[in-house]
Design a protein that fits this description.
With 527 residues, this protein is α+β, with helices and mostly antiparallel strands. The chain has helices at 12-16, 30-48, 60-69, 94-110, 125-142, 152-165, 192-231, 270-285, 319-325, 330-347, 369-377, 380-390, 394-409, 451-460, 467-474, 484-505, 509-526, and strands at residues 2-7, 53-56, 75-77, 146-150, 184-187, 235-243, 247-254, 259-266, 297-301, 304-312, 317-318, 355-358, 364-366, 417-419, 428-430, 436-439, 446-448.
């Protein structure tokens, strides 16, 4: 596939040497319009070679460049190829601030310091390159010849990616790589998307590792102090078992001999609030095995809200690990899953206020079941864009959205019950004899209808633990009438859209493909 790069023509801000980074931006000058007419024949020659569409920055100077080219191909405005947000540099003379801009690019390239912001409060290099990676993967995935009208900084990054892919010399940004005032053709292959995704992941990891290296000592000290304050005991030893962009999980042994799990999350205390609420409700109900949880501790550190959640470590192993070990017979596995169904029935007897994720006021986000069901259909524009980028036909996505909307409009009035919302083999702990010892990880808890948990299990676990076994233990035959399969597949569609959005945001190609297959299976059920 060919990607044609073209910089917008001269704008009034360009002519004056002024940085113009706030939408809509200035219009093209007369000279700029004349330049577009000059390059039009070369763009038309590419058009004859099969250009399918034009991706364009939302700035006026880029849109007018497309307008005056007078070419008849679809125009797609994409925020990801907009001008850099230069913060306080906006409106300044370029000569006055160019040294500061070059220094940020130089530090990003040489020192891997990618979080210095242009103009103090503008965009940083990491944000810039991640949106370029995201854009480029999206268009390569479609394998079409396209024209890109954007800004010099964006086009330079695209060309640098292409050069790395082809093993070519990477020129310094300070050199004039290409004016892009005339179209530049770059050849990409569908397989390039794998390299770009790997480069993107490595970039994020490099940035994360750099930041965490400087923050690790401070975080370790905070954890030590918080654990002692909450549990009254010193940490004897600990190890990090999960390390993420905004969360950390530790397995620790206290001086008192007690094993604990420490969860630290940045700027998202709601997940710990949900967990604490759900565990308290289960203990109040009785008969539901959950870990002991100490009170949540929140600290403001460098303008970030760090939330600390400390729980008893449950002995044993996850049901997922146990099943995969192969030590249980089919009869034994069925008995354990039946027991999981029985515990799920007890969880669903817990009544709460509101539907959706539990907020800090300990209520769900939505007043009614129908409002909850509309959460995806109300974002149909997003899902149509995702569908276009991952290769789902528009009519298929429209059918999915229509099915969800119809169900939401006819939704019965239901009382919200507590839904674990991630009730899977991974979050059920068992001992050596196959007895369930705890249901863990309640951070996704919400108010919903019982079918939400059935569908999640069916979506994730059914190959290793048939959903029918779970329902046998649930023991509510009045729920499983002729409408059961309709509801199950409808909930699966709803879950599938959420999963598609999640995998798309992470550029997880394998996850996207799996979710596409599941969405099509559930849609076929209704056809």
């Amino acid at each position: 596939m060919n990607i044609i790069l073209l910089r917008h023509a001269q704008s009034f801000a360009n002519k004056k040497g002024i940085i113009d980074a706030i939408l809509p931006g200035t219009a093209l000058t007369t000279e700029g319009i004349k330049h577009v007419n000059t390059i039009r024949p070369s763009v038309i020659s590419f058009l004859k070679g099969g250009l399918s569409k034009c991706y364009c920055s939302p700035f006026q100077r880029a849109l007018q460049t497309f307008k005056f080219l007078k070419i008849k191909i679809p125009l797609i405005i994409d925020e990801r190829i907009r001008e850099i947000d230069y913060g306080l540099y906006n409106g300044k003379n370029l000569n006055d601030v160019s040294a500061g801009i070059k220094a940020i690019f130089r530090r990003a390239t040489d020192d891997k310091s990618m979080r210095d912001r242009f103009g103090i409060n503008g965009e940083n290099y990491l944000e810039l390159i991640l949106r370029v990676y995201s854009f480029l993967m999206g268009i390569i995935r479609k394998n079409e010849n396209v024209l890109i009208i954007s800004h010099e900084a964006i086009l330079i990054e695209i060309e640098k990616i292409w050069r790395k892919l082809r093993g070519l010399e990477i020129k310094n940004r300070s050199d004039t790589e290409h004016s892009y005032e005339k179209p530049l053709k770059l050849l990409f292959n569908p397989g390039d998307i794998c390299w770009i995704q790997k480069a993107r992941d490595e970039l994020e990891l490099t940035d994360y590792s750099r930041r965490m290296h400087t923050a690790r000592v401070k975080l370790d000290n905070l954890i030590t102090n918080v654990v002692k304050e909450i549990t009254g005991s010193e940490i004897y030893k600990k190890k990090r078992i999960i390390s993420g962009e905004v969360s950390e999980v530790y397995d620790a042994l206290l001086g008192s001999g007690r094993n604990i799990i420490i969860k630290v999350v940045e700027n998202n205390p709601a997940c710990h609030i949900r967990e604490q609420f759900a565990i308290k409700q289960c203990l109040k109900m009785g008969g539901i095995p959950v870990p002991h949880m100490w009170p949540i501790r929140n600290l403001l550190v460098n303008s970030n809200n760090l939330s600390f959640c400390i729980q008893e470590k449950i002995k044993g192993e996850s049901l997922k690990k146990a099943i995969r070990s192969g030590r249980f017979t089919q009869k034994q596995k069925r008995k354990i899953i039946n027991s999981a169904g029985d515990f799920l029935a007890k969880i669903h007897r817990i009544k709460i206020e509101g539907f959706g994720y539990i907020k800090s006021d300990l209520k769900g986000c939505y007043d009614s079941f129908s409002d909850l069901l509309r959460q995806h259909s109300s974002r149909s524009d997003l899902f149509f864009r995702i569908a276009d980028e991952v290769g789902i036909r528009e009519n298929i996505m429209r059918s999915i959205i229509d099915l969800l909307t119809q169900k939401a409009n006819k939704a019965p009035k239901l009382e919200p019950i507590l839904s674990h919302n991630d009730y899977t083999l991974s979050h059920i702990m068992i001992n050596h004899y196959g007895k369930i010892t705890a249901i863990i990880d309640w951070s996704e808890a919400q108010g919903n209808f019982c079918f939400n948990d059935f569908a999640k299990w069916d979506y994730i676990c059914k190959e290793e633990a048939p959903t029918e076994w779970l329902l046998e233990g649930y023991s509510a035959p009045f729920l499983f009438n002729e409408e059961y399969n309709n509801l199950l597949h409808w909930f699966r569609l709803n879950i599938g859209l959420g999963a598609l959005s999640w995998y798309f945001s992470r550029n997880d190609l394998a996850g996207i493909e799996r979710t596409k297959d599941e969405l099509l299976k559930d849609l076929r059920y209704f056809s």
